[in-house]
Design goal:
two-stranded antiparallel ribbon, globular
Length: 476
């Protein structure tokens, strides 16, 4: 049974279960949750490939196999975690918040031990074993156990459509701030120039940076836990517990979820492959690794500049409509970069910044898509499956992450990239430029087509589903 909620998304329950009204405190707390997540996620997405290839000396092909193989494990751990949070009996502090309290330290520790620089001196089989064990521990278990409850929690912090949209915005701002910190500081810390003028990495800096980011992640998770409040409760009825196969069959008929899953695959492939390849692009094409700090700041700046206006944009145009047009703009601008073949950094950065404004618009609203899909699933099936819906989407994002890392590793090998070489040939550098611009451009355009023509939850549909569920809960 669900607790009734008022127009502000607050549960109408008995006096003993009264909670404070939904407001800015929850939004800031939810922002810090993604800030904490991305101290490990963005760091790994952007620099783990660099650590594996340039510090440990593994080939891009081997790393690609690791990233893609780990997603097979995620197919089980993500869905299992979603079912656990959906079916567990709520604790005193809620159904989702306890996982943030339980898993914050394990996430920080597992992320840190992925970057132990002294492993480079181990024999090859020991290095490979270390990489497999530590990556799976972080990605498939610890990170899964905190990210799925955290992402699902938005649907119970508020039931109001506008409130959820604001949570999505603040979550994206949190990710952008983490990206800003990581993007600004990490290149300055890990990259250096050797006596011959080649760009090199500093192995010890990876370990130190990972440890510091782990500490910051724990602080951010703590702020998320104490500032957020679960308000909407959904008690499972006796006999309602479905098996995983029944759940997957039900979600397999959810058109909005399937469309967003496909879009997520393309989105993550484009954005994370772009982040990964940019490291090699500026090291080996532009011959300036430290300028990545400026590039990363500009990449985040677009999202942060849009954030104050996103509520008005969504209210006027709708999440689907605004997000799709943002993807269209980003795709076109990346293709312009591809055809121009720029040799100068400033004009490249200007066009890259404009492209990230478009992708930033989509990222600011994408998490609100999930809560809309959760509502849609309840309307059509009568079942509330927050964790399961989010788990399926989370798995899709991890597959996209794996494709980015896997394809990135395979592409590096295919284009002739040599991990041990102090510098790459001009031909290899040109190929890096092609991958870093053409692939994101095409993928972003595919995301636009999926969201605009396949994803059905436009502005009117979302408002209609919200009204149906509001009336349903007020009757209970």
């Amino acid at each position: 049974m669900a607790g009734a909620v008022d127009e502000r998304g607050n549960t109408k329950t008995d006096e003993s279960r009264k909670v404070r009204p939904f407001g800015i405190r929850d939004k800031i707390g939810y922002m810090f949750g993604d800030f904490g997540n991305d101290f490990s996620f963005i760091f790994a997405s952007s620099y783990l490939m660099v650590f594996y290839t340039k510090v440990l000396g593994l080939s891009g092909y081997v790393v690609g196999l690791l990233f893609m193989g780990a997603r097979i494990v995620d197919a089980f751990t993500d869905v299992t975690m979603g079912r656990i949070v959906d079916n567990m009996k709520p604790a005193r502090d809620g159904r989702f918040r306890p996982w943030i309290r339980w898993m914050s330290i394990p996430v920080a520790i597992s992320s840190t031990i992925m970057y132990l620089y002294f492993v480079r001196d181990w024999v090859y089989w020991a290095k490979l074993t270390y990489v497999i064990v530590t990556y799976l521990l972080w990605s498939s278990f610890c990170y899964t156990a905190i990210n799925i409850p955290y992402g699902s929690m938005a649907s119970v912090i508020s039931s109001d459509v506008k409130g959820r949209a604001s949570l999505s915005t603040f979550r994206s701002v949190g990710a952008s701030l983490a990206g800003l910190v990581i993007g600004l500081l990490v290149p300055l810390i890990i990259y250096d120039t050797d006596a011959a003028g080649n760009q090199v990495v500093k192995p010890v800096s990876f370990t130190v940076t990972a440890f510091i980011f782990g500490v910051f992640a724990i602080i951010c998770y703590g702020l998320c836990y104490f500032l957020c409040q679960e308000r909407v409760t959904f008690e499972k009825k006796e006999g309602q517990r479905d098996n995983v196969w029944d759940m997957l069959k039900g979600l397999g008929k959810n058109r909005p979820l399937l469309a967003l899953v496909c879009a997520a695959l393309m989105l993550l492939l484009a954005s994370l492959l772009g982040q990964t390849m940019n490291n090699y692009l500026f090291l080996d094409y532009f011959k300036n690794g430290k300028v990545m700090s400026i590039v990363n700041v500009l990449s985040v700046a677009g999202t942060l500049l849009l954030a104050p206006f996103i509520s008005g944009i969504v209210t006027r145009f709708g999440k689907k409509e605004a997000g799709a047009l943002g993807m269209l703009a980003a795709g076109v601008l990346y293709l312009v970069l591809f055809f121009l073949r720029l040799k100068s950094i400033p004009p490249f950065m200007v066009l890259l910044f404009l492209a990230t404004v478009g992708s930033g618009l989509f990222n600011l609203v994408i998490w609100a898509f999930i809560t809309d899909i959760i509502d849609y699933q309840e309307v059509v099936s009568g079942k509330r499956e927050d964790g399961s819906v989010y788990a399926v989407y989370s798995f899709a994002r991890k597959v996209g992450q794996a494709l980015a890392g896997g394809v990135g590793g395979f592409v590096l090998t295919a284009i002739g990239y040599v991990s041990e070489a102090p510098a790459q040939t001009e031909e290899v550098a040109e190929r890096i430029y092609t991958v870093a611009t053409l692939v994101p451009g095409v993928c972003y355009l595919v995301v636009f087509l999926i969201i605009w023509f396949v994803y059905p939850l436009g502005k009117k549909e979302v408002e209609k589903n919200g009204a149906i569920l509001q009336a349903k809960r007020e009757q209970k």
